[in-house]
Amino acid sequence: MRLVTLTVLLLFCKAAEFRKAKNGRSRNRAENGKAGRLRKGSGTVKRYAPGLPCDVYTYLHEKYIDCQERKLTSALPDWPEDLMHMLLARNRIHKLENNMFSKFRKLKSLDLQQNDISKIEDQAFFGLNKLTTLLLQHNRIKILSEEVFIYLPRLNYLRLYDNPWHCSCEIETLVTMLQVPRNRNLGNYAKCESPPHLKGQKLKVIRSELLCPLEEDIQPYQQMALSPPVVKPIVDSSICHIYMFPILTLDCKKKELQDIPTDIPQDTVKLDLSNNNIKVLRSKAFDEVPNLEILNLRNNGIEYIDPAAFSGLMNLKELNLSNNSLHNFEYGVLEDLYFLKNLWLRDNPWRCDYHIHYLFYWLRHHYTVNYYGLECKTPEEYKGWYVGKYVQSYYEECPKDKLPAHADQDTEEDEKERQKEHSSQIQTVKQHSVMLTVFS
Ligand SMILES: *[C@@H]1O[C@H](CO)[C@@H](O)[C@H](O)[C@H]1NC(C)=O
Ligand SMILES: *[C@@H]1O[C@H](CO)[C@@H](O)[C@H](O)[C@H]1NC(C)=O
């Protein structure tokens, strides 16, 4: 992957050099008073003139368009759809609109540096499943949500520096995304421009609490999030029952455990830790059991999951977190769970505020994962809403007096959630939640 990135960068440099050389040539030509010549296999080379065709060429079997310095304000509809690299540096693009690039499905790199971009709409990068490299440096971007990047699952090289970042709550999701260790090539060198007391701080390392002052009532939880208490493992797995057939299963339910037991057999496939007293899942809690496929943690009172708690669980298919005390997931918690199929989230006090967005977008992005029971419990105004509906309303910036009407409408997310409910065949749980609604 790094090699690919390097190659792409080299190509960018080459393109830049080539452009310089060409500029030199055209200047010479102008001085000599000669007419422009045709370049091999491409359009007329004439710079600083809008509306002229861009250079389209193929290099190492990949199609490029070089539209640098054309005073463009957008991508143009007549460009070939099979472009893999788009060079749009030094134009006059102000805004990236929804679906602006959606017909260029093969695009691997997109160079938008040195434009005037100040606004990127949420679905501007829709359809760019193959994009690995995105250059946005030297623009006028002040705020940006992580949401714009959910359509770019392959993105591994992102440039954001030389933008006047306003380091406020609005870029908190972006900052947390950039700070996930695996995203080490995303957003390096970008710095806050405002507010004055944060000027010069790097987005890569700034503490997100500085961006988003905490609300009073979530403070105890947040403090935990900053320094998760280390609970010493107190027991080893010998108190659990072990079954070898049909799959290696360790049954540790109802053992009054306060932490994951030690010495779990390394090839355990199913681990039942339900009905214990585990409050915190610490970093690398399941490091010893890389083959785990089914993990049951229901009925524990779990309050906090370290972002690296599930690290290494690449084979996990089922995860049961029903009936715990979870308010949200910290950024990163789900990142290693490549093969997750079913996720039970019911009966947790999900808190519908900004911190729930990560969980929601992860699930939306990983649409093959079936999940059950993601419903707001607090604050009061969103109680009983599907989290998807809350997130949608968050972005609609709906005036407060319109909210009740909105709450009656069925949204797409509701529909999806409901379909999942039907397919899940967990009737007892369903009845349970209906009863809850009746009583509350
Ligand atoms: C939820 O978990 C608690 C322990 O944390 C347990 O006492 C309670 O019975 C569980 N509720 C259900 C419905 O299983
Ligand atoms: C997870 O818990 C729910 C009840 O909340 C139950 O219906 C479901 O079967 C459990 N799944 C697993 C894999 O344990």
Output the keywords.
single chain, 2 domains, alpha/beta, binds 2-acetamido-2-deoxy-beta-D-glucopyranose, six-stranded mixed beta sheet, disordered C terminus, elongated, Leucine-rich repeat-containing protein 17, leucine-rich repeat, Cys-rich_flank_reg_C, osteogenesis, 9 helices, Leucine-rich repeat, LRR (right-handed beta-alpha superhelix), 23% helix, 440 residues, seven-stranded mixed beta sheet
Protein topology:
Layout: H1 2-32, E1 55-59, E2 62-66, E3 85-87, E4 95-96, E5 109-111, E6 119-120, E7 133-135, E8 157-159, E9 165-166, H2 172-179, E10 192-194, H3 208-211, H4 219-226, E11 241-243, E12 249-251, E13 270-272, E14 280-281, E15 294-296, E16 304-305, E17 318-320, E18 342-344, H5 357-365, E19 370-372, H6 387-396, H7 403-408, H8 412-424, H9 427-439
Parallel strand pairs: 2-3, 3-5, 4-6, 5-7, 7-8, 9-10, 12-13, 13-15, 14-16, 15-17, 17-18, 18-19
Antiparallel strand pairs: 1-2, 11-12
Bound molecules: 2-acetamido-2-deoxy-beta-D-glucopyranose (2 copies).
The site of one 2-acetamido-2-deoxy-beta-D-glucopyranose has 4 residues, from loops.
Can you describe what's shown?
- This protein has 440 residues and is α/β, with parallel strands linked by helices.
- It has 2 domains: 39-211, Alpha-Beta Horseshoe (Leucine-rich repeat, LRR (right-handed beta-alpha superhelix)), CATH 3.80.10; 238-439, Ribonuclease Inhibitor (Leucine-rich repeat, LRR (right-handed beta-alpha superhelix), Alpha-Beta Horseshoe), CATH 3.80.10.
- It has helices spanning 2-32, 172-179, 208-211, 219-226, 357-365, 387-396, 403-408, 412-424, 427-439, and strands at 55-59, 62-66, 85-87, 95-96, 109-111, 119-120, 133-135, 157-159, 165-166, 192-194, 241-243, 249-251, 270-272, 280-281, 294-296, 304-305, 318-320, 342-344, 370-372.
- The strands form 5 sheets. It has a 7-stranded mixed sheet. A 6-stranded mixed sheet has the order 1-2-3-5-7-8, covered by helices on one side. A two-stranded parallel sheet has the order 4-6.
- The termini are far apart.
- It binds 2-acetamido-2-deoxy-beta-D-glucopyranose (2 copies).
- One 2-acetamido-2-deoxy-beta-D-glucopyranose (NAG) binds next to strand 15 and strand 17.
- It is found in: Secreted, Extracellular space.
- Residues 403-429 are annotated as: Disordered.
- This is Leucine-rich repeat-containing protein 17.
